[in-house]
């Protein structure tokens, strides 16, 4: 006999998740804006801060998708 599977309800991203994703996109925008302020040698404050913000933005978006 074949078992009948209960249909699982597919839910979208929650309101809290959307807010977290929006914050992550904001971090990305700020990070890429600061990235244009870096110098070719990579020894100023923008060269240190921008990769942190960009990676943090991508991590924040991933967390927002999971929640």
How widely separated are the two ends?
37 Å
Give the averaged pLDDT, no decimals: 88
Order of helix and strand elements from N to C terminus: HH
Discrete helix count: 2
Q: Round the Cα radius of gyration to an integer and report it.
A: 19 Å
Q: Tell me the number of strands.
A: 0
Biggest pleated-sheet summary: none
The rough form would be described as: elongated
Task: Name the structural class.
Answer: mainly alpha
Kindly state the percentage of residues in helix: 55-70%
Low-confidence stretches: none
> In the residues, how many domains can be counted?
1
Classify the beta-strand content into a percent band: under 5%
Give a written overview of the molecule.
The protein is mainly α and 67 residues long. It has one domain. The chain is 64% helix and 0% strand. The protein has two helices and no strands. The chain has helices at residues 15-35, 45-66. The protein is elongated. The chain starts with 14 loop residues before the first helix and ends with a helix.
